[in-house]
Design brief:
This protein is α/β, with parallel strands linked by helices. The protein has ten helices and twelve strands. Strand 5, helix 5 and strand 6 form a beta-alpha-beta unit. The two termini are about 30 Å apart. The chain binds nicotinamide-adenine-dinucleotide.
Length: about 270
């Protein structure tokens, strides 16, 4: 089978650079194109040098259509508006679309689902294998532990993160809600401040901490009377997400159009 040509949007971003390295190093694929938003300082630079590798002979372009023309799969870790534009281009060109961009609102999420009617889309709030195992364990714990265990999701990220709770924290909340057979939107408790009253039974609480250079810590807490279970994942480097995204791209080759998750890629049944 021919090597998979990978395009990376947001190439100069924290994830973009990690994705260039991962796609360059993985077997079965190569970096074929890289893009950035208009005005970004990295435009015209070599994607390899940008990521701290040797020059790859691939210049970072502003024209996303040019990127999609050169790629069999596009990895998108950018921002919600850009992600929606890129998903539409993926649908138009039949390109595999792997997206880890978080913070999408309902309409933007709908646009991703629409694109997935035309092409293979893998979307995950977190592409690390360890986090996806934590998601599966959280769902299982919520299924076993009844309402007498209060569920709280705690996350901490670096000071530059712009959305909260993190996509992964929401994913853990959804996994817990699925385990309990409830709708997260109906039981979610976002943030507490002042005289909040007692905790409502059956709710799933979220707390977000921001600071320093923390890449991503997540804990699902199940607090009962006399015991507490905590399922924790700590990310030590962005390469875990990048490697997962490349793995998803290689998995997606030959799949039918549809919206897939990292759980599908890893073969976890949920
Ligand atoms: P970042 O700000 O460092 O990088 C984003 C890059 O996208 C920037 O360089 C920006 O210029 C670029 N960009 C914005 N609009 C663009 C456009 N129209 N075309 C091309 N490039 C464009 O952010 P980051 O830390 O790399 O995170 C990016 C996204 O990925 C965030 O939503 C973050 O939450 C998410 N993320 C997801 C996972 C996961 O596993 N799902 C892991 C880490 C980060």
């Amino acid at each position: 089978m021919a090597d998979l040509a990978i395009g990376i949007t947001g190439a100069a971003g924290r994830m973009g650079r990690a994705l260039i390295c991962a796609a360059h190093e993985a077997a079965g694929c190569h970096v074929a194109a890289a893009s950035e938003r208009a005005g970004q300082a990295a435009l015209g630079q070599d994607a390899g040098t940008l990521a701290g590798l040797e020059a790859l002979g691939i210049a970072v372009v502003a024209d996303a259509a040019q990127l999609f023309a050169a790629a069999g799969a596009v990895l998108d870790f950018t921002a919600p508006v850009a992600c929606v534009t890129h998903a539409a281009l993926a649908a138009e060109t039949g390109t595999i679309f792997i997206t880890g961009t978080t913070g999408l609102d309902a309409a933007q999420q709908e646009a991703i689902a629409l694109a997935a009617q035309k092409t293979v889309v893998v979307q995950a709030p977190n592409f690390s294998v360890g986090v996806n195992l934590a998601l599966a364990l959280t769902e299982q714990a919520a299924r076993v532990l009844d309402d007498s265990f209060d569920i709280e999701i705690v996350e901490m990220h670096h000071r530059h993160k712009v959305d909260a709770p993190s996509g992964t924290a929401l994913g853990l909340g959804r996994a817990a809600a699925a385990g309990r057979g409830v709708d997260l939107d109906k039981v979610s408790q976002r943030g507490r401040d002042g005289i909040t009253g007692e905790r409502k039974p059956g709710t799933i609480g979220f707390a977000s901490l921001r600071g320093g250079d923390v890449i991503g810590d997540h804990t699902a807490v199940f607090a009962g009377a006399g015991e507490r279970i905590e399922i924790t994942h700590k990310a030590g480097g962005r390469e875990i997400f990048a490697a997962g995204a490349v793995r998803a791209a290689l998995w997606a080759v030959g799949k039918k159009p549809g919206l897939y998750s990292m759980q599908d890629v890893l073969g976890f049944t949920r």
